[in-house]
Amino acid sequence: KMAAGEAAGRYRSTMSKSKDPSGLLISVIRTLSTSDDVEDRETEKGRLEEAYEKCDRDLDELIVQHYTELTTAIRTYQSITERITNSRNKIKQVKENLLSCKMLLHCKRDELRKLWIEGIEHKHVLNLLDEIENIKQVPQKLEQCMASKHYLNATDMLVSAVDSLEGPLLQVEGLSDLRLELHSKKMNMHLVLIDELHRHLYIKSTNRVGQRNKEKGRISSLVKDASPVPLMDVTNLSTPRKFLETSQFSTPGSSSMRETSLLEIKEDTELDPEENSTVFMGILIKGLAKLKKVPETVKAIQDRLEQELKQIVKRSTTQVVDNGYQRGENLSQENQPR
């Protein structure tokens, strides 16, 4: 009994000091384990039941006193719980949607990359088709340029077309005939340019001198001047050497034509290409350079130099004889058979 009393005292002191339910439970277990008497255990059990009844009564009283606040708290707690549950469900759904969007974006990215590559391929094919269409018109345009003697444009067009046909369009079997035709024209183009260059070097330049001499002779016959025909004045004649060494073609702001590069010579399709013989010869040389036929041009000039000079002498002699005969005829008509 003494042990039961001490255990009860410890139990009450523990209840008064500690608010922790686990501490209370441990105290009760310790009391029951240290008690060997059944009566003491029943007493302890009765005290526990009495304490529980008292707690129930106190709880009921507190519930009655705070019913409104308790109801509001319970409802608020239920609402919060429902909101938390709904939020969790929504977050779960959002995660699932994000994963789905991520997969779809991966698929779209692959599809867009495929479409982008196809777009590049189609653009390249369209460019090739446009280039083929333009190249098919080259023979006709080339014939027009050659007929109008715009040789630089013709050379650029021909070289560009052949480079395309033997480069990006090499595998196009339908252009094989056109490729052979344009390649053949490119191989023979320099012969036409060399002939034009010789014509301006040896024929057109001397023709201008002869024409000037004829005009002087005509003027002298009109004024009945019996003095001998003056010598040909070739000091102001434009020659290729003077094209490079004199400043007769210089423009304001430039010291001489020596500073003008061959690359700066351009062909005006609106003007007569042979109006300025010096510029025309520069265009011919530029075209030959584009055709990479400068060595062949130099060799042709060297081979034909003697022959062309002989022809100049022959033509000049014929002009002098004709002018002298015409002058003799005019003097004989004036009864001056000198």
Automatic annotation (TrEMBL):
One of its GO terms (cellular component) is synapse. Residues 46-144 form the Exocyst complex component Sec8 N-terminal domain. One of its GO terms (biological process) is protein targeting to membrane. Pfam families: Sec8_C, Sec8_N. Keywords: Coiled coil, Exocytosis, Protein transport, Transport. Residues 45-97 form a coiled coil. The keyword Cell inner membrane does not apply. Residues 1-21 are annotated as: Disordered. Belongs to the SEC8 family. This is Exocyst complex component Sec8. The lineage of its organism: Eukaryota, Metazoa, Chordata, Craniata, Vertebrata.
